[in-house]
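S1.2 Input.
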Amino acid sequence: MGRTQKPLAMIVTLFIMYVITGLALLCLAFLLYRFQLSEQTVTIGILVIYTVSCLAGGGIAGKKMKNRRFFWGMAAGSLYFAILAAGSLVIRSGADSDILHRMMTFIICAAAGMIGGMLSSRRS
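S1.3 Output.
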């Protein structure tokens, strides 16, 4: 894959990841409305959504890049988190005091993306 195609492939991958996230969050919102889920359940649901989106994104990035798949998967997960964090900072207009939560979310996103990238090599 050429140098100009890699950024485009990563943008497409991130778009797919956010579509998956959006659809899953809509489902979670419906479940919250219908069953009055607890805050803890919703928090776990959000982390599961992030994990599934990053696994899928890592797999897509790995398939598109063809080499160093684990790296590209981790890059997709890290970029996914960076965009989420930036959006959160803009919306909340300031830094969140819970740095441990942010670091754990980053680790989950990067690791899930890396695992997705590694799993993509098994299927091809």
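S1.4 Remarks. Helices lie at 5-35, 39-65, 69-92, 99-123.
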